[in-house]
Design goal:
By secondary structure, the protein is of the alpha/beta class. It is built from 12 helices and 16 strands.
Length: 544
Amino acid sequence: MSTTPAPWWRSAVIYQVYIRSFADGDGDGCGDLAGLRSRLPYLADLGVDAIWINPWYPSPLVDGGYDVSDHRDIDPSYGTLDEARHLIAEAHGLGLRVILDVVPNHTSDQHIWFQEALAAGPGSPERERYVFREGKGEDGSLPPNDWHAAFGGPAWTRTGDGQWYLHLFAPEQPDLNWDNPEVRAEFASILRFWFDLGVDGFRIDVAHGMAKDPDLPDLGLPEFRVIAHEGQENHPHWDRDGVHAIFREFRAVADSYADPRVFVAEAHVRPGRLARYVRPDELHTAFNFDFLKCPLEAGRLREVIDRTISDLATVGAPATWVLSNHDETRHLTRYGRARTGVTTALRDHAQPTDLALGTRRARAAALLMLALPGGAYIYQGEELGLPEVEDLPDEVLQDPTWERSGHTARGRDGCRVPLPWSGDTPPFGFGPPGSTPWLPQPEDWKSRTAEANRADPTSMLHLYRDALRLRRTEPGFDGKDIHWLDSPDGTLLFARGHRLLCAVNLSHRSLALPATHGDLLLASGPLDDDGLLPPDTTAWLRTT
């Protein structure tokens, strides 16, 4: 039996840093590298293995940095390339790996390539880097097809010379042509640039959307959808087989380093399709959106957990688990509603939210997630118990969805509000006193600051710290599989290897814990006086 340690990424807990909202070092209201560097000890103390930093490249910020104008530099509002070098070294010195975002589906319309394409005109090599087409109709005034963009409206914009270009997201984010060898060579070079600076890996944005049907057929759908639905096995721009050759090229770059670099895919695909992205010669891991979007119901969760583990086992890949990110309503808020799953790209602000209930359920869900085999992702602020901010004034909203939807969808700004670190009034230590964060923080966040969490031994922060410490030190977490045990409806009970039990009570009745268990390692809330597990509570138990 091999005694070689498993690669770090197979069980890593990775903390997502939405840099614009993490910590502001210079007082301009936006997070930056100086702020992030000052908080690296906090992240190391939390107990995560790595940080994933959302795009920090030069960008007009039409889509929060996912409209990149230069892939080999740092946006001046965040700092400098030299500061990035220092950050990587300092993170490594604290035992933290560094994962960046790479955005290969599209660029900013301010990228030099797109500006060259506009200047060069139809039929030029410069336009072949993107997806330009003639329009329909006698005068070409109709879009080339009926595709819709993610942020509303058509997926095509017409240029001054009459051609149209494709953008599956905002008009300021033109899609690249991945059938062009020049595009593929450029991104291999971009990966090497950052790997050579010491970056440990990349999260691949829109990994399922990079290959398009060259015939660009109509979809016949009335609106944008994030995945190909049943009956759309040959979707013209989602989850096409052509993406896998691209990822094999990416993997070859990563594996060329003495300490191989890693990838995680953002791939929104139908159940059963995700394993194709993490085959041994492609990407290492992929986000588990089925788990994130699953309602907090025991039967549905067990179904997703079983399917995830069994599907990925066919290719030898580990599962990952995630509850929130920068694109979805924070799970503490979702779990305080009658409908706890993510069912639509639009936020349902009409649902009443019970934050006390959401907090109890968020604590229980965190221990469930961290008890499962594989890796896990923590979105900044969830360890502080932050809810979605649902009452941002209309005039401060910056997500492109707001404008492109005609002010009918408020977008994702509510999960991107800057973090509260300390103090009783905004900016709560996010920036220097007197600075104004780019999105306003709720006054009542004074009870949710990192400082307030540290002072309360029952806080969400202490729960996360304790859970991450036990993941590192408790032998039961070495178990690579889970074994389900019988339990009442509305509950989950499983063994991790032979030394750890996880009990999750999502029912309306208290749950008796197994009589054979040993020590109670950690619980998301206090047990009943008679030792029963209350509703909306999870416990970790050491088996005897």
